[in-house]
Amino acid sequence: MKVWTDDAEAGLLDRFGNRGSTFLYLAGSLAARAVSVTMPLRLPSWNTEFGLLPIFEMNLPEGVLRERLRLAFAKATGTFDDVDLLGIVGRSQVGRIRYTGDTEQLDEDVPFQSVDEILARRRDDGLFRHLLEKFAPSSGISGVQPKILVRDDSALPRMTDRLSESHRGATHIVKFWEQNEYPQLAANEYFCLKVAEKCRLDVPPFRLAEDALALVVDRFDLRPDRTYRGFEDFCVLNARRTDQKYRGSYETSIMKRFAQFARSPHLGEDLERLFTLIVVNCALRNGDAHLKNFGIVYDHLEGDVRLAPVYDLVTTSVYLPNDSLALTLNGTTKWPAANALQRLGETQIGASPAQIREILQRVRDAIWATAEEVRAYIHDHPAFAAIGNRMLQQWAEGATHSLQMASA
Ligand SMILES: Nc1ncnc2c1ncn2[C@@H]1O[C@H](COP(=O)(O)OP(=O)(O)OP(=O)(O)O)[C@@H](O)[C@H]1O
Ligand SMILES: [Mg+2]
User: Fold this and answer.
1) How far apart are alpha carbons 225 and 161 in whole angstroms?
2) Whole-prediction pTM value?
3) Are residues 60 and 132 in the same domain?
4) Which residue, 36, 168, 190, 345, is the most exposed by fewest CB within 10 angstroms?
5) Res. 88 pLDDT band, cuts 50 70 90
6) Is residue 82 domain-shared with residue 121, that is, in the same domain?
7) Can you give the CATH number for the domain in which 121 is found?
8) Rg of the Cα trace of the chain?
9) Selection from 58, 6, 7, 2 nearest residue 26 by Cα
10) Pairing mode, if any, of strands 2-5 and 8-16?
């Protein structure tokens, strides 16, 4: 199939050997056409023995969405591997890469779906199934939980209409959940994102459905002219497959790796944001902060490379009481005490003890203020009480254990 970057052809991707794939850049392409900061233009092909190269695997649906697509399309293709899946969702993806058949032109025409309708309507299983069915083939987005990409231009008042005729790509991500397995997951993520926002981290606009069964997030890779920015997650930067997303450490696989690929006058600021985000994950007891839940963004492959905005924050320990870190810190996946986070900050961003104390205090204040909002929401939404109260417990434990210095 053809691989496109920023609306131009970049190269060809094909199956290779028994189970692998190969990618070849188009002769004479510009360096800026490259598909990843990890894969510069070159004459020889880029090959892998197994599956797809990380940048091409990055947005493949996992979990429920993948299963839905397999059921719908496996009959037609006979088999169903990653290349088949990319052939289906490749025309509408997170980030700046698109895929089409080798004789096709780009055609990113995602159906319109009112975001307000999703947020306001009390949902029965019917709407959930309908949305998943309708949008799954244009949802090139990773993750285990069911989610779709939708287009609602009207919900983006800051957008110009100039290019709307040629750019009809998705504008929002709608996240649903397996209600029996993870009750109240949408509200859980909603309040965790609130904490991040109060820590002055960069969080895209997000809204919780009235019935709390869906979370709608604006795409942070969408530019005002409706083209898309480059986005790469840390599986790609670490040359790992998706099934290796829980491998690595926060020190090397996240912080050092970011410093290796970041390029901008704001490096110091971004490193502090990344450190703060790791602190937030620990304090909120999010055991799912794996390699795919951090990313970089860029407008031009050879220009500034910045830390991606925050996404996918959840207090997972309310569902898995024995949950722990997704990656190691200081050689262990145990929730860190404040002094371990202090060491991380001192060694990875060169911050002074006073600066680190200030960051930890900022996170505590944010948790404290958001806890008030959680209490108010519990008051008005009794169905959230069980999970909400467990979240408050986990946050209190996290704030004491991971944010409070022994000497403070
Ligand atoms: N606001 C956003 N804009 C653009 N891309 C996003 C945004 N939020 C998330 N993504 C992309 O979508 C992917 C899936 O989203 P998310 O991590 O929230 O889902 P998830 O199913 O909860 O993931 P997991 O499998 O880690 O539990 C992310 O890894 C990232 O690549
Ligand atoms: Mg995720």
Assistant:
1) 8
2) 0.96
3) no
4) 168
5) very high
6) no
7) 3.30.200
8) 21
9) 2
10) antiparallel
Residues having CB within 6 Å of any atom of ligand 1: 94, 141-145, 147, 173, 204, 217, 219-221, 233, 288, 292-293, 311-312
* Residue 302 shares a structural domain with residue 357: yes
Same domain as 299, residue 265:
yes
Residue 314 C-alpha to ligand 2 middle, in angstroms? 10
Per-residue pLDDT tens digits for 284-332:
999 999 999 999 999 999 999 999 999 999 999 999 999 999 999 999 9
Q: Whose Cα sits closest to atom 23 in ligand 1? A: 143
My answer on whether 203 and 167 are in the same domain is yes
At 77 the pLDDT is 66
Which one of 218, 241, 270 terminates a domain?
218
pLDDT tens per residue across span 371-403 = 999 999 999 999 999 999 999 999 999 999 999
Contact 344/254 with Cβ under 8 angstroms? Answer: no
- Looking at the fold, whether 202 and 239 belong to one and the same domain comes out as no
CA–CA separation, 113 vs 143, rounded Å?
21
Total number of domains constituting the chain: 3
Regarding whether 242 and 153 lie in a shared domain, the answer is: no
The range of the structural domain enclosing residue 158 comes to 115-218
Backbone φ, ψ for residue 160 (5° rounding) = -90, 155
Q: How far is the CA of 114 from the centre of ligand 2 (A)?
A: 24
* Distance in Å, CA 143 to ligand 2 centroid: 5
